[in-house]
Write a structure and sequence with these properties.
Number of helices: 10
CATH architecture: 3-Layer(aba) Sandwich
CATH class: Alpha Beta
Helix content: 25-40%
Structural class: alpha/beta
Bound molecules: S-adenosylmethionine
Radius of gyration: 17 Å
CATH superfamily: Vaccinia Virus protein VP39
CATH topology: Rossmann fold
Distance between the termini: 51 Å
């Protein structure tokens, strides 16, 4: 159980991982995170924010299930993985094959502190790193010991690129990962979007994250689509998460996000 005296946990500012945990109804957050979410709830509406978080989490689950069952993926690099919560990537991947391997990466040290206890098993590793410096992940010794980049890997960027500003060059980041991926590899991305989002709601998201440890950057559908350059989007393409391989998982429908899965494109 994490406490406010757990070492290396920044308490002065809200973090995306802890705010997301609060929005999903978890217990691993502090007053500063609740206060930031209260700003989101005030402008956007509590139900809408919590539904957005849940819709995203449902997408993650369906994407991992699809990748493991339909695409035969057995290695996952879950970047911006967040705090462990219900139905984590490795649990879903292991339903398809108990030998599946997952590396969780997050910038927030709380993920490793809290996750190591909960996720401790031979199928997972947790690394604290900043995806804006992709080489710190791609050249990490533990990552390379555990994952074999000569074989297909799915890289998951689920609800994380909206914490990368245009100046930080998201295309460069995706390209760094793609260049290491072998044929048959995939990417999954979901992202908060301005398309269909009122100005008031956009302001609300920015206000809520104003003091957070990572910056917020909402994007249009067109800008999110560009993140898939070098990948072929699988059906049904880049869509609202609730429309991406829907099943009976009762996904909320907020129209705050887009999500998709792409396969490394063959060089033409
Ligand atoms: N991927 C999980 C999901 O969709 O359920 C968690 C999403 S949560 C909204 C975003 C996560 O991305 C947070 O845990 C945050 O710490 C992490 N994050 C933000 N910026 C990051 C960066 N530059 N490098 C690595 N992780 C980052």
């Amino acid at each position: 159980m994490m406490t406010e005296s757990t070492p290396n946990i920044p308490l002065g500012a809200p973090t995306a991982a802890r705010m997301y945990d609060e929005a999903l109804g978890g217990k691993d957050h502090f007053e500063v995170d609740r206060a930031a979410n209260a700003k989101l709830y005030e402008v956007i509406g509590e139900d809408r924010v919590r539904s957005t978080a849940m819709e995203n989490r449902r997408f993650l689950g369906r994407a991992v299930r699809y990748l493991s069952r339909e695409c035969g993926i057995r290695q996952f690099l879950d970047v911006g993985s967040g705090l462990p919560t219900a139905r984590n990537t490795h649990q879903i991947a292991k339903e398809a094959d108990p030998g599946s391997r997952v590396v969780y990466v997050d910038i927030d040290p709380i993920v490793a502190v809290h996750g190591r206890a909960l996720l401790a098993d031979d199928s997972t590793r947790i690394v604290t790193a900043d995806m804006r410096r992709p080489e710190t992940i791609l050249d990490d010794a533990e990552v390379n010991e555990f994952l074999d980049f000569s074989q297909p890997i799915a890289v998951l960027f689920v609800a994380v690129f909206h914490f990368v500003t245009p100046a930080e060059d998201p295309a460069r980041i995706v390209a760094a990962f793609r260049e290491r991926q072998s044929p048959g590899s995939y990417v999954a991305i979901s992202h908060l979007t301005t398309d269909g989002m009122s100005e008031k709601e956009q302001e609300g998201w920015y206000a809520g994250f104003a003091g957070a440890t990572v910056p917020l950057a909402l994007r249009s559908e067109k800008e999110i689509r560009r993140l898939f350059d070098g990948y072929d989007l699988v059906e049904p393409g880049l869509v609202r998460p609730y429309d991406w391989h829907p099943d009976d998982d009762d996904s909320p429908r907020t129209n705050s996000l887009f999500g998709g899965v792409g396969r490394v494109a063959h060089p033409s």
